[in-house]
Amino acid sequence: MGQSPLDTCDLLCLDLRHAESIRASLPSLDRIEVFAARARALSDPTRLTIAAALLTGDELCVCDVAWVVGQAQNLVSHHLRQLKVAKLVSSRRSGRLVMYRLTEQGRELTSAVMTFSVSPVKERNDV
């Protein structure tokens, strides 16, 4: 006989009171979409590297960010704009320079992403 999949219940049971309290505590779909957009903004390796540089360097001009991450300035500017749209970075003009820094949300999300250490998963072949 075949085994049941591990990711589904064999019996439909619902702790309605518990499930409803969890459902009621979830953020609205609008808020979830904002959170997902922020997470997507850091899903690109270049943007995550830029965010990590800003986390360490606090505030950097585009030239410095480009040198630190080893990418062309126009590419870094493009990624910084995407991080800005996601409200993960803010910018200010200082004379002829544009200075970037992580927002509080950007700092928190970057820290959370950079904190997780993923160890390689060994696959088992049960035959």
Automatic annotation (TrEMBL):
<keyword id="KW-0805">Transcription regulation</keyword>
<protein>
    <submittedName>
        <fullName>Transcriptional regulator</fullName>
    </submittedName>
</protein>
<feature type="domain" description="HTH arsR-type">
    <location>
        <begin position="27"/>
        <end position="125"/>
    </location>
</feature>
<keyword id="KW-0238">DNA-binding</keyword>
<dbReference type="InterPro" id="IPR011991">
    <property type="entry name" value="ArsR-like_HTH"/>
</dbReference>
<dbReference type="InterPro" id="IPR001845">
    <property type="entry name" value="HTH_ArsR_DNA-bd_dom"/>
</dbReference>
<dbReference type="InterPro" id="IPR051011">
    <property type="entry name" value="Metal_resp_trans_reg"/>
</dbReference>
<dbReference type="GO" id="GO:0003677">
    <property type="term" value="F:DNA binding"/>
</dbReference>
<keyword id="KW-0804">Transcription</keyword>
<dbReference type="Pfam" id="PF01022">
    <property type="entry name" value="HTH_5"/>
</dbReference>
<dbReference type="InterPro" id="IPR036390">
    <property type="entry name" value="WH_DNA-bd_sf"/>
</dbReference>
<dbReference type="InterPro" id="IPR036388">
    <property type="entry name" value="WH-like_DNA-bd_sf"/>
</dbReference>
<dbReference type="GO" id="GO:0003700">
    <property type="term" value="F:DNA-binding transcription factor activity"/>
</dbReference>
